[in-house]
Amino acid sequence: MNPSPEQVKASESAVRAAGDRTIEQYQNWMQTNAAAHLMRAARQSGLTARLREKQHTLEELCESLSLQRETTALLLDALVAIGFVEQYGEDFALARAGHLLCQYDDDLGDRRWEGLVDRLSDPETASFADAAEYRARNAATQWIHTAAAMQAAEILDIGGPDASPGPKILDLGCGSAVWSCAMAHRDAEASVVAVDEPASLQAARRTAESIGLGDRFKTIQSDPLAVTVGEQQFELVVLAQMLSGYSDDQAAGLLEKATAALKPGGRIAVPDFYIGPGRAGLKESLGRLSIHLATPQGRVRDLRECQAMFQAAGLGGIQFTYLAASEAGLGMMVAEKA
């Protein structure tokens, strides 16, 4: 039976649509790569640093940086188009998001990824950041998880009508303490003890000060793996983006330390990367690969492995949820001490 004219047209339309999608995907790849080169050119030429200081005209930028006018004008137009630079009349300024680039990502992550090929070809000679540097980088960039931290506090029902007031929270490996501070912010009687290395604690104190936690926020300067925090002292322990940065033995030991610090019936909350049953999107894939490249033995574990690890530490009532507010694709596992 021959297809009808309508069926032929529908088939041709489907073929054209598939072709259009292929072309669109190709163009997206090329534009994404080009945008990265635009931002690198802005950093390497000095434009980013100069615009970080204050607004400048095209002429001021060319004169102070010895840049060619026509090419600089075209580059600035392109940077405005991708939102990295903003234009106000004749003045150019670094966009607000550009000001967020810190010492760990001012190169747009190049240092993080340049070891990928070496790791592919010869993992034995690949270089890694040490654990303290890895945590310091996380602390410096942890502000991106603010919305997810607020969602996590809601999921835990801290400050809610059915929650016990004034929980004592241990933030073990606090980073910038975004997660525990968001939780303490929901309950005016909650208190936080944050544990980490000096660079991270500096960022953590700034976070606590920014929301007025005052003397409800205390710190202990120590490697989280080595710290002594006592037993049965806390209603909630937070291990944010910690377990994936360590070897299996280290992660298990940290989880056992956290469990020991909990009072009976206390909970542990672990916002982190996880491998679920579905196919990972780009942000999840990048997160997993980034941890693999940055840590000697750290890795993102699947949910069944994590469940077994939690059970071995004496935790039950294990629940997992993806954090929809996370821009990085994080989830959170929550468990209770019997």
From TrEMBL:
Gene Ontology molecular function, alphabetical: methyltransferase activity
One of the Pfam families matching this protein, by short name: Methyltransf_25
Record key words, sorted: Methyltransferase, Transferase, Ubiquinone
UniProt keyword Cell wall biogenesis/degradation present: no
InterPro entries: Methyltransf_25, SAM-dependent_MTases_sf, WH-like_DNA-bd_sf, WH_DNA-bd_sf
Superkingdom of source: Bacteria
Protein name as catalogued: Ubiquinone/menaquinone biosynthesis methyltransferase
GO BP term, pick one: methylation
Domain Methyltransferase: 169-266
